């Protein structure tokens, strides 16, 4: 188990993770109207939240891990003092234009139906949820026995979990889209084409209807 500081240092020094984060942040910021509020769901140590706030977006952060919250309080202390970042103990404590969930936060859920129902009370109509999730088709994972053992589960059900402490789940986009309905519709997903084999993460954009 990483401490907040260990996770923070690792995620900032990993070149691959920096590339993913930069792409995710750019997509989120391009979609957000000027001055729109955002909820960073599973905010970690506040890296994304700090960037949203720096770009003029009032930012709420929800993070259930105590270790992450402790480091977030240090890393974002100036923004928290100015109230450009506000910590919440429940996603339902705010009303925003967008929810972002970066670096596989939603892969910790076995089913997203209740989550999207709750987020429908958080996101304004016309707003969005942007999530980066582990790509179940990523061929870099084919070297692992758990990936090969679950290929048929992926084909048949579009979902499987791997045996681990955190029970990480893998989903195809249409399974998550089905859970998001009728409150959200899947508007866009990345990657396309050959990227399904080469990209560890997929980005899913859901529009509130």
Automatic annotation (TrEMBL):
Keywords: Methyltransferase, Transferase. InterPro entries: SAM-dependent_MTases_sf (IPR029063). GO terms for biological process: methylation. Signal peptide: none annotated. It holds the Pfam family Methyltransf_23. GO terms for molecular function: methyltransferase activity. This is Methyltransferase domain-containing protein. The lineage of its organism: Bacteria, Pseudomonadati, Pseudomonadota, Gammaproteobacteria, Lysobacterales.
């Amino acid at each position: 188990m990483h401490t907040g500081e260990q996770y923070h240092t690792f995620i900032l020094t990993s070149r691959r993770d920096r590339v993913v984060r930069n792409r995710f942040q750019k997509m989120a910021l391009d979609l957000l109207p000027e001055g729109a509020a955002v909820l960073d769901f599973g905010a970690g140590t506040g890296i994304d939240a700090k960037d949203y706030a720096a770009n003029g977006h009032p930012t709420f952060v929800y993070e259930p891990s105590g270790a992450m919250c402790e480091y977030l309080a240090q890393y974002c202390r100036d923004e928290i003092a100015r109230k450009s970042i506000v910590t919440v103990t429940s996603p339902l404590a705010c009303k925003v234009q967008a929810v972002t969930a970066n670096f596989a936060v939603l892969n910790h859920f076995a089913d997203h139906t209740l989550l999207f129902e709750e987020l429908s009370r958080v996101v304004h109509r016309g707003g969005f949820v942007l999530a980066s999730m582990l790509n179940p088709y990523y061929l870099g994972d084919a070297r692992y026995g758990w990936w090969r053992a679950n290929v048929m589960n992926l084909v048949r059900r579009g979902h499987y979990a791997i045996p681990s402490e955190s029970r990480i789940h893998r989903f195809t986009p249409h399974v998550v889209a089905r859970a998001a309905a009728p409150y959200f519709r899947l508007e866009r997903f990345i990657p396309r084409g050959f990227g399904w084999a080469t990209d560890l993460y997929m980005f899913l954009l859901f529009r509130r209807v």
